[in-house]
């Protein structure tokens, strides 16, 4: 059991001195209680979690934050390093991290904190761990993301934690209300399976499951090449189909190539999930967010445009996100697609916050801008997330207001939403965060 965290390795008292040392420490704590004994609130319970790997789908990272002492996270066996991390949802001053190890414990590890999930600062270091419960108190660090980074296993297996608890004080009062996580991607299921090491969509599906979001959304081209029903069953269903019931899809241009008819296989596979309102475009609410899943193959259809206007006029939620396949702005091979500009004008007039797209097979984020590409604080943030599994496209012509571009590593968007704010990360299939977006306040 740990009472405080120090930079150098801890000295372990001999058995003869152990009782004396513990008595002295207990006396000091009674005489001089510090903030760690003031019962700082538990911040990590039920929060979004990711890990470098999992032993199997039943031992995901979320199990270490569910408050159930019988469930656990376990990494892949026989490999170092491995890590487990949690997003607290808001910046906090962290005072304590409590780790309850399973038999597969860490002999050496670090507890680290980060503001953005990219740059990490050490809070505590263990060099001679022996399992059981490690209770690091008296910590001093401020950030939003906490991770345990294991560098040496204590057994021949992997790393496994029954619970990881993070305590502290949020910088700005209690964590934001209504917080939830969504995973999104476009351009997903190439015609390959996990039997091929180069097949990417099994890996992005495994990553998406490890994040364990409230639900999943897709930004089109869910299935290649012609999106027949048989293709969906042979490829998409074997990977992303594992969480089909929690998926809210949108179609892409490849869904229109089906010889049985435009969107025929897409509609047959997803059914009411893709057509909850009888059309390939629909809306729904989650928390204080209004989501619009649109069909950018038919932005010239007056019926869809009128539906969009009417739907936004009825919306009572503060935050608005739309997702569809063709991006108005893109630095990739397809480039800007003016077919989306009329929809952008409607969304901008309704003070929409966020647009998610696929089509170009890369990741890209833009600063807030208007439908004419002018940077403005009240503009729409656009993210291209077309790295779900199809072959990457290179970056070609960098567009104005483009803030970050990544082509090559496959991955998914991890969107963290509250009643008033949103931010996101682009997470690669290796579990690492390739990019973190700013935190924006909804219009």
From TrEMBL:
Residues 43-76 are annotated as: Disordered. Coiled coil: none annotated. InterPro entries: Calcineurin-like_PHP, FA58C, Galactose-bd-like_sf, Metallo-depent_PP-like, PAPs-like. This is Discoidin domain-containing protein. Residues 31-169 form the F5/8 type C domain. The keyword Signal applies. The keyword Cell membrane does not apply. It comes from the Bacteria. It comes from Streptomyces solicathayae. Keywords: Signal.
């Amino acid at each position: 059991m740990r009472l405080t965290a120090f930079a150098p390795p801890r000295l372990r008292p001999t058995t003869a001195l152990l009782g004396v040392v513990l008595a002295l420490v207990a006396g000091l704590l009674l005489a001089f209680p510090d903030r760690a004994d003031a019962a700082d609130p538990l911040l990590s319970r039920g929060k979004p979690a990711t890990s470098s790997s999992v032993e199997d789908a039943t031992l995901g990272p979320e199990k270490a934050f569910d408050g159930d002492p019988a469930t656990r996270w376990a990494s892949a066996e026989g490999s170092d390093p491995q890590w487990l991390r949690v997003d607290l949802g808001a910046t906090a001053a962290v005072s304590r991290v409590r780790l309850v190890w399973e038999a597969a414990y860490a002999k050496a590890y670090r507890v680290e904190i980060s503001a953005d999930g990219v740059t990490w600062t050490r809070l505590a270091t263990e060099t001679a761990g022996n399992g059981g419960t490690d209770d690091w108190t008296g910590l001093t660090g401020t950030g939003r993301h906490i991770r345990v980074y294991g560098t040496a296993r204590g057994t021949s297996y992997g790393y496994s934690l029954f619970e990881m608890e993070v305590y502290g004080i949020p910088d700005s009062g209690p964590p934001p209300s209504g917080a939830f996580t969504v995973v999104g991607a476009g351009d997903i299921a190439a015609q390959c399976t996990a039997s091929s090491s180069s097949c990417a969509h099994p890996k992005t599906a495994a990553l998406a499951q490890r994040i364990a979001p409230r639900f999943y959304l897709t930004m089109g081209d869910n299935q290649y090449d012609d999106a027949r029903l048989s293709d969906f069953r042979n490829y998409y269903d074997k990977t992303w189909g594992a969480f089909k019931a929690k998926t809210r899809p949108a179609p892409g241009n490849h869904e229109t190539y089906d010889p049985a008819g435009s969107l025929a296989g897409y509609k047959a596979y997803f059914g009411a999930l893709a057509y909850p309102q009888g059309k390939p475009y629909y809306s729904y609410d989650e928390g204080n967010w209004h989501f619009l899943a649109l069909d950018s193959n038919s932005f010239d259809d007056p019926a869809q445009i009128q539906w969009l206007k009417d739907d936004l006029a009825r919306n009572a939620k503060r935050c608005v996100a739309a997702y569809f396949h063709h991006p108005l702005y893109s630095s990739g091979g397809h480039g800007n697609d003016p077919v989306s500009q009329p929809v952008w004008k409607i969304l901008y007039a309704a003070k929409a916050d966020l647009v998610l797209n696929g089509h170009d097979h890369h990741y890209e984020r833009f600063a807030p801008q208007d439908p004419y590409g002018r940077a403005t604080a009240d503009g729409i943030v656009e993210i291209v997330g077309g790295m779900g599994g199809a072959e990457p496209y290179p970056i070609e012509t960098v567009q104005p207001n483009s803030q970050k571009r990544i082509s090559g590593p496959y991955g998914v968007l991890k969107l963290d939403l509250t009643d008033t704010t949103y931010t996101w990360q682009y997470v690669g299939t290796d579990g690492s965060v390739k990019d973190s977006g700013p935190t924006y306040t909804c219009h």
